[in-house]
Amino acid sequence: EFRALENRNALVFTGVYFRKAATSGLNVEHGGRVEFYLKMGPIASDNAVCKASFEDVILEYNVADQWVEFGNYPAWKFRSDSFQFVSEDIPVEGWTNSTR
User: Fold this and answer.
1) What is the pTM for the complete model shown?
2) pLDDT digit string (tens) for 38-85?
3) For residue 7, what are the CA distances in angstroms to 21, 59, 73, 75?
4) Are 68 and 23 in contact (CB under 8 A)?
5) By the 8 A CB rule, do 67 and 12 touch?
């Protein structure tokens, strides 16, 4: 489950299950970059409705139904009061006219 709170440009995940977001196919046949701001929530008590994630955030691209990791962001490094900027160039192997 995901929802935007006050900022309509934010993707906010809640709940205790595996969380993911994916784009539709994008034309990046001449290269591209993925940029976003990342912030992990605080560590909450065992009674909290939304549990803090201790798993890394993984950035992947998909070509021909194959997901390939090209970014890994440890939860501990992004657990703070402010968002941190992330920028990753899409690897050459991901340059297609329908990369997800």
Assistant:
1) 0.77
2) 888 776 655 555 555 667 889 999 999 999 999 999 988 988 878 899
3) 18, 22, 23, 22
4) no
5) no
